[in-house]
Amino acid sequence: MAYHRKKNRLTNTKPDTPTAVFRAVDVTKVYQMGEVSVPALRGVSLELFEGEFVVLLGASGSGKSTLLNILGGLDVPTSGTVYYLDDDLTASDPAVLTRYRRDSVGFVFQFYNLIPSLTARENVELITEIAESPMRALDALELVGLKERADHFPAQLSGGEQQRVAIARAIAKNPKVLLCDEPTGALDVKTGIVVLEAISRINQELGTTTAVITHNAEIARIADRVISLSDGQIGDVKVNETKLDVSELAW
Ligand SMILES: Nc1ncnc2c1ncn2[C@@H]1O[C@H](COP(=O)(O)OP(=O)(O)OP(=O)(O)O)[C@@H](O)[C@H]1O
């Protein structure tokens, strides 16, 4: 598999069995809206492996955000089991889930959710102050190419730059996994590519297991694997034998 080969090229050693960072088994999610039941996931089983870059592809309403939120401990399934490494997230109490979200998961959303009255560096420091083994805020900003803008406020930054601050904030805690829900959804193509370059660099340089939600099939070409969701079920899982460099993307 592609993520395997990447590791091999770097270490020149025999392939070993990939570690599953996530294992979801027959996960369902039904939202109950009064009398109405809305099935969002209908028996999803998947594994995400250490260090890989996965794109979750699917039309609006196919269940992508619901799945990512469950993997990230923001939501719980109606039935089924989700393992993070050896831990059963679905059997964890709220305090354990809080610690899991705080220490192990970096989230990036479509809208950047920066605090307007804090500089880029201070927005990142909010996280480094509570994380267990963070990197320095300036180092996180450097990884996304914004070290020089550390003392600027969000209003002084473009949308793409604000999203890169949000990425720096997400990875400054040194999370094991980076979960991105439509990170380029609010951006034009050129800016979206710069944001994807930052995410891809983090995946490659830090080895952070990365999942990116999109409905844009072009973006799927930069992934190690593409998992397609349709109507709350996994349709197709494709390994990109030759994955595109982010700079080659156009849509
Ligand atoms: N909190 C909620 N309450 C009720 N229904 C919900 C809730 N969240 C999601 N749904 C429903 O679950 C289904 C899956 O939604 P979800 O947001 O996971 O899809 P998605 O693929 O991420 O869509 P999009 O690309 O539009 O964000 C949809 O029918 C949606 O209306």
TrEMBL record:
* Boundaries of every ABC transporter domain copy: 22-249
Indicate the enzyme's highest-level EC class: hydrolase
Q: What is its EC number?
A: 3.6.3.-
- Name the record gives this protein: Lipoprotein-releasing system ATP-binding protein LolD
Per UniProt, the keywords (alphabetical) are: ATP-binding, Hydrolase, Lipoprotein, Nucleotide-binding, Transport
Family the UniProt entry places it in: Belongs to the ABC transporter superfamily. Macrolide exporter (TC 3.A.1.122) family.
| Organism whose genome encodes this protein | Novipirellula aureliae
PROSITE patterns noted in UniProt: ABC_TRANSPORTER_1, ABC_TRANSPORTER_2
Spell out the molecular function terms from Gene Ontology.
Answer: ATP binding; ATP hydrolysis activity; transmembrane transporter activity
Presence of keyword Transit peptide: no
InterPro entries, alphabetized = AAA+_ATPase, ABC_transporter-like_ATP-bd, ABC_transporter-like_CS, ABC_transpr_LolD-like, MacB-like_ATP-bd, P-loop_NTPase
GO cellular-component term (any) = membrane protein complex
